[in-house]
Design a protein that fits this description.
The chain is an alpha/beta fold. Helix content is 35%, strand content 14%. It contains 15 helices and 10 strands.
């Protein structure tokens, strides 16, 4: 499927709040959602937490509301199990939850959406209460019957999310997922080791001599094949076998210039240590790298790149659904969302945290963390789920590139 402009217009609503906090311009109007929620608490009118001066004329579907809930601590379990991306939640947040509720959250890590899906598809839930799938993977897991619906009576803080991050294409009724972080896929590089600046995917796929052999790609099928597709001028959601084959050849030709395929966190660490000079990274990892080592720069490459949203979800078979919902409600508190976003350096979808000015100004003013979506327009593209036939094309291409072999 090809992305339409409305694919990311919801995120533009959240950006309007961020830009207002920074004194910037408003983002474009987001279209009203066309799918009505089912089995959710009654919706209210347009939220009042969006700044009036820049509030779009029409927001996406209203968030569900629920009366404030008193947590029944007798129903909480001593420990929760979370399956998350590497280094993607602040230890301070986990410690504070344990301090307030007496529940320890144990976190295991995955490095790709496909690895997450395979873990649950193979033999059911291996013991996790909370997972963090990206946009297109939420849709895939809903279709496969792998996610639970939320009981919003236990998650009243859903009202703090910006409406533009709710009921997006991958979960149009908003029953299975709630926004955690969002961002883009960019390129980070050590400018002290290169003669010229990196500006586009071309610099990664047709690198200068001083970059050859020093590139870290993301060990993620859709991201890396998608970048190669964009380098060829196609959508990262291409369904044409010929286009996907062309992208495969780009990756094969590039292999001699690549240090390896790693997670975004590993690319960050390798860049800081000097093991690579440039790599594909997700927003927060790129920004952390720039904090850790002078000379490292993070950019959103010219052309088209991925805009994504990672989400909190409860997998089928979770043993502690009530405690999981209490934890998710905790993560949606403005102070906690801000603590997490400021530490991890990823853009927050929590509109109330933005409205209250809880996000570090250094982050808000960074155009690579909170990009000008109105200006970028169609240069941002969600990855979307293809059918089984299309997925088989991507699987075969990835296997033939030989990643991990």
């Amino acid at each position: 499927m090809n992305k339409s402009v409305t694919s990311f217009s919801g995120i533009a609503v959240a950006l309007a709040i961020a830009l207002t906090a920074c004194g910037g311009a408003a983002s474009p109007t987001a279209p009203a959602a066309t799918v009505s929620p089912t089995a959710l608490p009654a919706a209210t009118a347009k939220p009042t937490d969006a700044p009036k001066a820049t509030e779009p004329a029409t927001l996406s579907s209203p968030l569900p509301t629920a009366a404030p809930v008193a947590v029944d601590k007798s129903k909480l379990v001593p420990e929760l199990s979370m399956y998350n991306w590497s280094d993607y939640i602040s230890k301070d947040v986990l410690d504070k939850f344990q301090q307030e509720f007496g529940v320890k959250v144990n976190v295991d890590n995955f490095d790709s959406n496909e690895a997450l899906f395979a873990k649950f598809q193979a033999g059911g839930n291996p013991g996790y209460d909370i997972i963090v799938p990206s946009d297109y993977m939420v849709e895939k897991m809903i279709t496969a019957g792998l996610l639970e619906k939320f009981d919003f009576n236990n998650v009243p803080n859903v009202k703090n999310l910006d409406p533009g991050h709710y009921k997006l294409y991958f979960d149009p009724t908003g029953e299975y997922s709630l926004a955690y972080f969002w961002g883009t896929t960019g390129i980070a590089y050590d400018s002290t080791k290169l003669k010229t600046e990196i500006t586009s995917w071309k610099d990664i796929f047709a690198p200068a001599d001083d970059l050859k052999g020093k590139i870290g790609m993301i060990d993620d099928q859709r991201e890396s094949i998608g970048a190669a597709l964009r380098f060829k001028g196609y959508s990262a959601n291409a369904t044409d076998a010929k286009q996907i084959d062309e992208a495969k050849k780009v990756l094969l030709d590039q292999k001699t210039n690549v240090k390896g395929y790693f997670s975004s966190v590993d690319n960050r660490n390798n860049l800081i240590s000097g093991d690579i000079v440039a790599g594909m990274l997700f927003t927060g990892d790129g920004i952390v790298a720039t904090r850790e080592k002078p000379g490292i720069k993070f950019i959103i490459p010219q052309g088209v790149t991925t805009v994504w949203q990672d989400n909190l979800a409860i997998p089928k078979g979770a043993k502690s659904k009530y405690t999981a919902e209490v934890f998710i409600n905790f993560l949606l508190r403005p102070d906690i969302a801000a603590m997490n976003a400021n530490k991890q350096a990823f853009p927050t979808p929590n509109g109330e945290a933005l409205k209250l000015g809880l996000i570090d100004k250094e982050l808000l003013n960074n155009k690579y963390i909170y990009p000008d979506i109105a200006a970028m327009g169609s240069k941002l593209e969600f990855l979307t789920r293809g059918d089984a036939k299309v997925q088989a094309l991507y699987d075969r291409a990835w296997t033939e590139v030989g990643i991990g072999q």
